[in-house]
């Protein structure tokens, strides 16, 4: 399960400030799920969703990654089916930079 959480975190971080729609997360994890020998069942989705949102660097935003956080207590925080209705997983900027290897880009002599 830890390998699946790591793969999910990579997918979220790779989307940078836009986040990844929850419906796009599942196809992106197909290879990791196959490697783990797990089917993409509702139970697996629930566990992955709960474990991913438990990470302190992951936030849940509404819509197309415009940065509007999901309201506290929103059903999408607990129910993956609700989250699939239009929520995105989003990673904080510092974590995304670390994922891409951009640790000290502001000190570089060249522009990105």
Automatic annotation (TrEMBL):
Domain General transcription factor 3C polypeptide 1 winged-helix: 1-86
GO biological process, one term: transcription initiation at RNA polymerase III promoter
GO molecular function list: DNA binding
Entry GO CC: transcription factor TFIIIC complex
Pfam family, one: WHD_GTF3C1_N
InterPro entries documented for this protein: Tfc3-like, WH_GTF3C1
PANTHER family named among the record's database cross-references: GENERAL TRANSCRIPTION FACTOR 3C POLYPEPTIDE 1
Record's protein name: General transcription factor 3C polypeptide 1 winged-helix domain-containing protein
Taxonomic lineage: Eukaryota, Viridiplantae, Streptophyta, Embryophyta, Tracheophyta
């Amino acid at each position: 399960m830890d390998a699946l959480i790591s793969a999910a975190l990579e997918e979220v971080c790779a989307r940078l400030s836009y986040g990844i729609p929850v419906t796009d997360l599942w196809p992106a994890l197909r290879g990791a799920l196959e490697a783990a020998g797990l089917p993409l069942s509702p139970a697996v989705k629930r566990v992955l969703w709960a474990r991913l949102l438990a990470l302190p660097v992951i936030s849940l935003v509404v819509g197309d990654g415009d940065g509007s956080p999901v309201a506290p207590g929103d059903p999408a925080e607990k129910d993956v089916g609700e989250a699939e209705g239009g929520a995105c997983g989003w990673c904080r900027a510092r974590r995304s930079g670390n994922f891409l290897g951009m640790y000290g880009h502001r000190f570089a002599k060249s522009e990105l």
